[in-house]
């Protein structure tokens, strides 16, 4: 076998566990978000604040564990805009980015279906929960910008708890309850439950998230110390 072909084969072999980690991690994240929302709504007795609090707690704990488990394999992105920013920074090749996004989207769909299966709900559904308006779009941009800023600036040893904590806070300080993730938006539009979002609301959310990701990267770069010229 030619050396170039062997190198390509080795690259694909090394990529498989990373793609599996992204798909599985995203699936479990969506199962946590949607499943805990279903359970919370059933037990909260109509109290939306209690339901959101329970949903938040489960998401924070689940996200922390998933980043710790899958981070060493794939980086623990579970989010297309995070992967895209890493590609812009040169930390993820373009060809790998396509695979990451495909794995994340597939995982999000499977995670929604898994949550429905666990709660004996119809597997295939569409959300009817409309989420929109300038306030929620701004909230998604802010939530995503903050998420990227935390990811890019957190010390590596503290990234998992800091990211999970930020998402927990953003559930409450943003009007949109902080999706901050196009894959999550796709998965949640397939669930007519507490965590759902109507398909018609998804495009504006995704655009806002992309804007927020770009803003987060820009802020990170502005915070980086600039090299000073040495006097000759």
TrEMBL record:
Ranges that cross the membrane: 20-40, 52-71, 92-114, 134-152, 164-184, 204-223
GO cellular component: cytoplasm; endomembrane system; membrane
Keyword Endoplasmic reticulum: no
GO molecular function terms listed in the Swiss-Prot or TrEMBL record: water channel activity
Localization per record: Endomembrane system
Pfam families named among the record's database cross-references: MIP
Assigned keywords, A-Z: Membrane, Repeat, Transmembrane, Transmembrane helix, Transport
One GO term (biological process): one-carbon compound transport
Topology term for the membrane: Multi-pass membrane protein
Stated family: Belongs to the MIP/aquaporin (TC 1.A.8) family.
Name of the featured protein: Putative transmembrane abc transporter protein
Lineage, opening ranks: Bacteria, Pseudomonadati, Pseudomonadota, Betaproteobacteria, Burkholderiales
């Amino acid at each position: 076998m030619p050396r170039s072909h062997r190198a390509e084969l080795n690259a694909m072999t090394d990529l498989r566990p990373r793609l599996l980690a992204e798909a599985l991690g995203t699936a479990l994240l969506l199962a946590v978000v949607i499943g805990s929302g279903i359970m919370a709504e059933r037990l909260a007795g109509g109290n939306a604040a209690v339901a959101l609090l329970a949903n938040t707690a489960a998401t924070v704990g689940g996200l922390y564990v998933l980043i710790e488990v899958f981070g060493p394999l794939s980086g623990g992105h579970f989010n297309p805009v995070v992967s895209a920013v890493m590609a812009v920074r040169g930390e993820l090749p373009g060809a790998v980015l396509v695979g990451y996004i495909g794995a994340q989207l597939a995982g999000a769909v499977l995670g929604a279906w898994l949550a429905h299966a666990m709660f004996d709900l119809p597997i295939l559904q569409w959300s009817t929960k409309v989420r929109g308006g300038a306030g929620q779009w701004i909230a998604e941009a802010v939530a995503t910008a903050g998420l990227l800023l935390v990811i890019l600036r957190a010390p590596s040893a503290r990234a998992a708890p800091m990211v999970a904590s930020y998402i927990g806070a953003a559930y409450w300080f943003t009007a949109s309850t902080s999706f901050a993730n196009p894959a999550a938006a796709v998965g949640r539009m397939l669930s007519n439950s507490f965590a759902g979002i109507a398909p018609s609301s998804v495009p504006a959310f995704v655009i806002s998230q992309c804007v927020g990701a770009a803003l987060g990267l820009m802020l990170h770069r502005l915070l980086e110390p600039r090299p000073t010229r040495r006097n000759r």
